[in-house]
Amino acid sequence: MTTAEQDVSGAGSQPLSPDEVRLINAWWRAANYLSVGQVYLLANPLLREPLTPAHVKPRLLGHWGTTPGLNFIYAHLNWVIKRDHANVLYIAGPGHGAPGVVASTWLEGTYSELYPEISQDEAGMCRLFRQFSFPGGIPSHASPDTPGSIHEGGELGYSLSHAFGAVFDNPDLVAACVVGDGEAETGPLATAWHGNKFLNPAHDGAVLPFLHLNGYKIANPTVLARIPHAELEALLRGYGYAPIFVEGDEPMAMHQKMAAALDAAFASIRAIQQKARTGGGTAERPVWPMIVLRSPKGWSGPKTVDGKQTEGSWRSHQVPFTMEKPEHLGLLEAWLRSYVPEELFDAAGRLRPEIAALAPVGDKRMSANPHANGGALMRPLKLPDFRDYAVAVQQPGGANAEATRISGGFLRDVMEKNAANRNFRVFGPDETASNRLQDLFEVTSRAWDAEILASDDHLSPDGRVMEILSEHTCQGWLEGYLLTGRHGFFSCYEAFIHIVDSMFNQHAKWLKTSKEVAWRRPIASLNYLLTSHVWRQDHNGFSHQDPGFVDHVVNKKAEIVRVYFPPDANTLLYVTDHCLRSWNRINVIVAGKQPSPQWLTMDEAIKHCATGIGIWEWASNDRGAEPDVVMACCGDVPTLETLAAVDLLRQYLPDLKVRLVNVVDLMSLQPKTEHPHGLSDADFDELFTRGKPVIFAYHGYPWLIHRLAYKRANHENMHVRGFKEEGSTTTPFDMVVRNELDRFHLVADVVDRVPGLGAAAAYVKQAMRDRLTEHYHYVREHGADMPMVANWRWPGAE
Amino acid sequence: MTTAEQDVSGAGSQPLSPDEVRLINAWWRAANYLSVGQVYLLANPLLREPLTPAHVKPRLLGHWGTTPGLNFIYAHLNWVIKRDHANVLYIAGPGHGAPGVVASTWLEGTYSELYPEISQDEAGMCRLFRQFSFPGGIPSHASPDTPGSIHEGGELGYSLSHAFGAVFDNPDLVAACVVGDGEAETGPLATAWHGNKFLNPAHDGAVLPFLHLNGYKIANPTVLARIPHAELEALLRGYGYAPIFVEGDEPMAMHQKMAAALDAAFASIRAIQQKARTGGGTAERPVWPMIVLRSPKGWSGPKTVDGKQTEGSWRSHQVPFTMEKPEHLGLLEAWLRSYVPEELFDAAGRLRPEIAALAPVGDKRMSANPHANGGALMRPLKLPDFRDYAVAVQQPGGANAEATRISGGFLRDVMEKNAANRNFRVFGPDETASNRLQDLFEVTSRAWDAEILASDDHLSPDGRVMEILSEHTCQGWLEGYLLTGRHGFFSCYEAFIHIVDSMFNQHAKWLKTSKEVAWRRPIASLNYLLTSHVWRQDHNGFSHQDPGFVDHVVNKKAEIVRVYFPPDANTLLYVTDHCLRSWNRINVIVAGKQPSPQWLTMDEAIKHCATGIGIWEWASNDRGAEPDVVMACCGDVPTLETLAAVDLLRQYLPDLKVRLVNVVDLMSLQPKTEHPHGLSDADFDELFTRGKPVIFAYHGYPWLIHRLAYKRANHENMHVRGFKEEGSTTTPFDMVVRNELDRFHLVADVVDRVPGLGAAAAYVKQAMRDRLTEHYHYVREHGADMPMVANWRWPGAE
């Protein structure tokens, strides 16, 4: 029997004195009162005069249903924190219940410290009410401006993975994570429970989940509230938790039950951690406690409205009633007065001292927990000199390397240099080795606290490589880790990063809004390495081919997003180093893992990447004059094909003046007015000319280049090749042929667009057609690429 | 005790005779042999001569690890199907195991029937081997060209929701769904287990999940394989299943165990269905059986390679060994010969008759199950005349309606007219009523087979509205339902449809490839209604504001995707009807649910939507001449703001010739060469002129319009307004102001771009600034929009 299970038996006890129950209940009433006030009131916050329509907001917005449960848990956590000096972060999965979260932070004083105009008095209370869901005020969900929050809760599903991310490497921290029963139906949440198999009780903190069964979503019951008790308990035990049930609707009894449950849960957490930290070891994964709170939706709200059940019903989900019927004014006043505000607040509108004394003080307040403003705790990573990992490149194409493997060596040493600080982890869905970052395993392991066999490869409870076959969980863990002031790196198959499109959206929105909140400190950037990319899905084919994440990313605010396409290992090293030094951004790096020719020495790579875009003189023969054609490329495979096309052009059309432009920093294509990395029009025209044909080979969907460059002078002459959803399980070169991104098509594109080539044009086009025919025959005969294609070298390369 | 649990006790029995075991094992060996052959061999398929390097493929691709388990289950299902005349669809979650799936379909003869060149003889076997993962051949995953498959399995997580979707309204069908233990870690799969709360044993078929614990992913153990047995069993019971465990690695014993497990499972399914279908009723949700198969990864493959464990290890995940070492040739030959092919195939290369006799015949073969080529079963929907639901519009803006509520009336009658056919369902994450489609509940309910309380609203085991708070599950159910020949409609909050971006990708890819497979019949389109859109998130704010799904959609093949922005209720009716009649497409409809002015009579709506784009003469004053400015709009809110801007222009600049162009069919903006709905350049120029300013108010991210229209003659004069990630919980009009899409900004845009306005320009711009200032003050003072804005009417409208 686990510690948590032993303690559950104490749940029938009465751990609180009558006076303690009274005080905790008073706090809860105060928080509920303030919550209702935020939803409904514009004025008369303490009901000093009878309520009139003028006191009520013209537009009633907000979510009441989940709020009293959030307030109930918050009040009880405060009790435990104060008594036990616990270090607790509050994560409200139902962030819709912002009125409750905000109310508690105001009661604790944090809100007024950060926003002095929302003072702890009647005037401040009035402003607190007015600002909620009000133009120019605060939004309706917990958001970056909410003290103590790292979780918006607007899009449901991510609270529990955020909680695990927050406690990794924070041994003293407890993330109290409220999971709504609506949220519990989402896939990301359903798998996030398994975070306990990746948590090390010796060096990580604890997650204390509260499954809040209030029974209803917007208009429906919830699945977990409508399965038999035994089935629910089996499910939670199956997830590896020891659930403690707190069920009912009578507040006084519920206070005792919740206090007992929390006592049991915190005791269990302490016992587990103590055992793991005193040599008890990690032989067996502990069964962590969790709490199931089953309480009415809209608890303490109106029982019925217009004769229909409201408390304990989905009708409490948002605003339980509007003001369209005059009699609702009385209903609202009676509801508000049911909390007896005059008992809770003094004449000045301050929370009465004996109630206020329930809250912890200073940083122990959940609303002031330093981990919730993680940037303030963030220590920059110690980074080795990335130049030390350079691939020696005697001449362009004169070396071969797997780009991600090289950067894996760099990441290994980043991991090692920061091991003592325990503030860097690498995340990925079972793909770290597949993505050639396996050097990391020289200095750390995969985190794993489930069963380990002798035959296993680098598994350890103390591992710092986080692998679970859930992109959602990887992303959620990483977000939680970053938001609490640490650093991370996420490597993923390019196609499947779309699985977290929506999580990316929410993180980008969080960052954008955070920058507008004065007290939030910058956090480390979220760094994606997208590899196993569209052009090299040799094992997988069409289902694994999608380069569209970048299209999705660039819709977000320019100050937040960066996209890099390093064409070889040395440029990837530069970009990786750069991203790890940055903050408050989302960096997307797209790079291949397959053996490929290397183009730039480290010095050249630094120069090239610092600008983000540039002419490769060694591949150009325009010698500073206006070229006949610009061959632009972005991405490792397009760069290879473009260079091979330039080689062909030299053979077939030696007099043609060709300029090669390589793009590392995709945002350089946008106008400077649109993105801080955008080139000025003058610089852009200098590179791309104002009237010559540009053949642009791009890694992803070709339209993105047009979307970025449509304002440029020479845009109408830009012809872009890229992925157009053609492909299957085939050879690497056949993939580019199917999408017409190969060297032969590129040469044909040049010939089609450069005027004045005369008879040579037809000759070269026929030659390219012949080469393609040769390819078609060869690949279907041999199932492999023609040697002269597969082994092509840049002229002069060894 | 449930039926399944009772039967489990029989799992220790020996249901098969020795001869039956021998034959089933022979089938399994044959399927395994063919699987290895597909991965490795180019020639010498029956090993008639000693293996040489020339017989081996130059590029070795494929996934062996999961394959023997898939083959094992397939062989045993055949046994049951044949004996019991069962109707079984096979869904291989690990579609990576295509060599196995394809092998079984070849053994059954279906493959050769559909692809005669892959005949059931030595030559056909040789072509079968050669084509796998070979250029011009078949891809490495189960794919549309795989007989019997509705599930690619390339991207993991969706097998179980596909299985539930397939059996809804197919009472005789059993979907045997193999869930890999890697896939089981994904969020979508983790919540898909709850499909059993939405399954009606009386009218739906059964899902029989096989959780296949082979223990490893690419390089890692799996979570579910490394938790204690009791925990795993609790988890599965918590999900509502009675698990039957089949565990081991000794084939003969395993055959008996699997046969006993299947006997128990099918008996349990029959008992549950019989009870529900003979008046035993649905008072209690049944506990459905499932099977846990714990077997070695790469079972029957090489035990070790180069001294390292391979069978039962992640090293079996893909190709267990390459041919780089000469000694591996012998390893391969020994492995292949271990199946004793000469016992399995006759001299001609045909499966020996006594083994072939194990397979069911005709449509009972899983590879020939008609449900897997659902288009062949599809009956068109009976549709009422959408014109009967028209909102009466006496003059533009002269009526007010909630567009989605109107189309909800139409959908209600679609539901009713097809009730007897049981081939139409509506899907959505708890938002059907919120999205104003509640008229559906006049004729059906929400599907719900968990506990029902008297106070519940329209819940029934027989409901046809599918609501679970998981966009993944809704999408997976709908895909499974469509792929088996039925019809559906998915309504979703616009922002959160991004949650299924990646599932959309895979379905679009499936449709694209299906069209290239001659024997696949077209299936009904996947229809999305995106509402509760970016401009009207009054209750929710920034986290709920994202119109970017359309950007994602348009990257897919033009013949697959359609995007519609009906500006009012009558156009939405037309578009909804149109989408429900279409096939093999993904239709995205974006429409608002809030009360809004109505612009077009039904006759006008039909004419407008049939073209997809057009001039609204009544809002234009260019009278057929070249206008001074084109005001284009796409989306309901942009249309409203554009009309209000036109109204202002008439007041301030009555001599200005304004043309209003409204876009319903977004793809009309693309060139005809890029999309079948694209306008010809001549038609485009006719609408947008070749040189006049175009002020384009678009619903989503403005860049998308540029990406679609960049090739058009007048593109450089197009100025697009749209959503630029500004917003919060605020008023509807303040939202458009923050994004500069409002009437005042649009008028200012006109003034900035139309030349020759002289002093009027400055005057009008100042007037617009004043109106904006007035707005800012009003909204911050009152928390609501200025009455003259909120109540604006088109001139002449009542």
Automatic annotation (TrEMBL), chains A, B:
Pfam families in the cross-refs: XFP (PF03894), XFP_C (PF09363), XFP_N (PF09364)
Sorted UniProt keywords: Lyase, Thiamine pyrophosphate
InterPro entries according to UniProt: Phosphoketolase, THDP-binding, Transketo_C/PFOR_II, Xul5P/Fru6P_PKetolase, Xul5P/Fru6P_PKetolase_C, Xul5P/Fru6P_PKetolase_CS, Xul5P/Fru6P_PKetolase_N, Xul5P/Fru6P_PKetolase_ThDP_BS
Domain Xylulose 5-phosphate/Fructose 6-phosphate phosphoketolase C-terminal: 593-794
Domain of life: Bacteria
UniProt keyword annotation of ATP-binding present: no
Domain (Xylulose 5-phosphate/Fructose 6-phosphate phosphoketolase N-terminal) ranges: 17-376
Keyword Thylakoid: no
EC nos: 4.1.2.-
GO molecular function term, any single one: phosphoketolase activity
Cofactor(s) it depends on: thiamine diphosphate
Main enzyme class: lyase
HAMAP family registered for this protein in UniProt: Phosphoketolase
Family: Belongs to the XFP family.
Protein name according to UniProt: Probable phosphoketolase
Native species: Kaistia defluvii
